Amino acid sequence: MTFSSKLIEKAVEAFASLPGIGRKTALRLVLHLLKQDKNTTEQFAAALVAMREGIRECRLCHNLADGEICHICADTRRDRSLVCVVENIRDLMAIEDTGQYRGLYHVLGGIISPIDGIGPGDLNIDSLSARAQDGEIREVIMAISPTIEGETTIYYLSKKLQPLGVQVSAIARGVSFGGDLEYADELTLGRSIVARVPYAAR
Questions:
Q1: What is the pLDDT of residues 43-72, one digit of tens each?
Q2: What single-letter DSSP state applies at residue 118?
């Protein structure tokens, strides 16, 4: 792809570095921005800079937040006795979109995967244990993608949480084994949350 302008080329390369964006799509986005008035483009750039500089991690659940605590943890209408454990932010958003869950969350930041060099110490597990020890949590729902690594993570967490007197459950397997949670349709995912089952570590 040949460019008449180095500035356009650099902008296309920036957009093309995003996941799922090829160079042709990146060029279309750049040309679209060039057609907009200067104020619109400046607002677009300012929103990205403000997001990058201002976004924080919720000190309770590790969700993305504008302040110390995310809007979900701050919502007094949520059931604080329920905590849904997810692998990442995208999974949290997928479950929220179902409208079936009104508890709190805990974002692990990944799953245990020895082949990738990811152990329990690399995840937000200690903070989950600390939350469970406070005594307010009655049930922890494991909403982790049904893969070998996901099952390993669920097993490890259940062994760690059960001595604390917390009920551990896993979402019903309407979600296919080996699939990623974020790609499950809302109806299937919503039903999986509602029809969760107790998880027994053996």
A1: 999 999 999 999 999 999 999 999 999 999
A2: B
Each residue's pLDDT tens digit, 99-124:
989 999 999 999 999 999 999 999 99
Parse the chain into domains and list their residue ranges. 6-54, 77-198
- Integer Cα distance of 196 and 173 in angstroms: 8
Residue 192, CB half-sphere, CA atoms under 13 Å: how many?
26
CATH 3.40.1360.10 for the 77-198 domain, yes or no: yes
CA atoms within 13 A on the CB side of 38: 0
CATH topology identical between 6-54 and 77-198 = no
* Main-chain dihedrals φ then ψ at residue 31, nearest 5 degrees: -65, -35
Q: Global pTM?
A: 0.78
According to CATH, the superfamily of the domain at 6-54 is RecR Domain 1 (1.10.8.420)
Question: 65: exposed, middle or buried (C-beta count within 10 Å: 0-12, 13-18, 19+)?
Answer: buried
Q: Which helix (H) or strand (E) holds 71?
A: helix 71-74
Name beta bridge partners: 140.
83, 168
- The SS3 assignment for 167 reads strand
Separation CA 30–CA 25 (nearest Å)? 9
- How far apart are alpha carbons 74 and 72 in whole angstroms? 5
